[in-house]
Amino acid sequence: MKYLQTSMVIMVSSLLSMSAISAASVMYESTALAQLLKEEMRRPEYPQEILPNNFTHVIQLLEYGTKTDQPRAYAQLVLRRFSNLLKSAHYVNAHAAQELLKQLPAALEPYITSHRYRSFLGGKAVADFEMLERFNTCVTYHLYKKFSTEYEQFKNDPGTFLDALSVDIMHIAQEEVSIEQLRQTTYRFLEVLLSKMIWSPEEGQETWKTVRTISDQLAGLMEVNAIDSLEDLDDLYRTLVYRFCYFIDLTAPTLDAAFYQTVMGDLKSGGLLLIETEDEDPCIETKAEVLQRTLFSGQARRQAYLKQTTR
Q1: Are the CB atoms for 298 and 250 separated by under 8 Å?
Q2: For the CA atoms of 93, 99, 104, 105, what is the dihedral angle to 10 degrees?
Q3: What is the three-class DSSP state of 262?
Q4: Other CB atoms closer than 10 Å to residue 94's CB: what's the count?
Q5: Burial level of 106, CB count in 10 A (0-12/13-18/19+)?
Q6: What is the pTM of this model?
Q7: What are the average pLDDT values for consecutive 10-residue runs of the chain, which has 311 residues?
Q8: C-alpha span between 27 and 23 (Å, rounded)
Q9: At what angle do helices 56-67 and 94-112 cross, to 10 degrees?
């Protein structure tokens, strides 16, 4: 049964992509806000100086799509375009990323949990199930509903009834595939965002507070099904940890003692979602090990720097 469901989802995915994205592109370009931003976004300064410090346009375009009842392909196009813009950016301001992630779950949720899809689920929450389980629940509920309310029609004209039922099941599969496409685009956008983040060493231990806040915000995306697996969440956490360790490597001598004490203290006390989510892989250092090694190295470099400056 699961093999059949998976095959159907894969088959429907081939019917979506290009046509859905093309239609969304037309709608995207026709919005007044997009027209206003079109020339601004094409300027070289936009991805270099404006976008890394302010992601307001991302949220504005997603919210506009919700207000005008655009399909998921529209949200996918918005995120893909901003993801490509970010690729040319030299950095992303961590505070700007934090503000974006604060608003992103609410901006994406309407595209994931559309009224149409909730009707297939019989009122159950989209995030309550994994992909194939959700698809199976939708089909089962719809079959029960159709046969319980239209059984006489089935007996009188089974061919027409089953043809209509097949179309409904294709729509259910299409809904599931479109959610997965949006989810993957969201994941790629977040990977680019996290891999470019920078912090100010002058903020000291506040930089670590920002990291913890961002890790909680990323987990919030699971609540609206924009991320649907712990593996994907852990991959994003690993990107965040590696980027923060790179920041420590660059600025180790200038970070104060309180910074190192705070981060090491939090690692020892445990309970950090950022650390607790992963399955141990014997071939790869854990995130905690990466952080600890980077902190020990940073502290040693700081001590050496202090000795040199006090001579």
Answers
A1: no
A2: 130
A3: helix
A4: 25
A5: middle
A6: 0.77
A7: 41 43 52 67 89 95 90 92 94 98 96 62 51 63 68 70 66 75 95 97 95 96 90 95 97 94 93 80 88 96 86 66
A8: 7
A9: 10
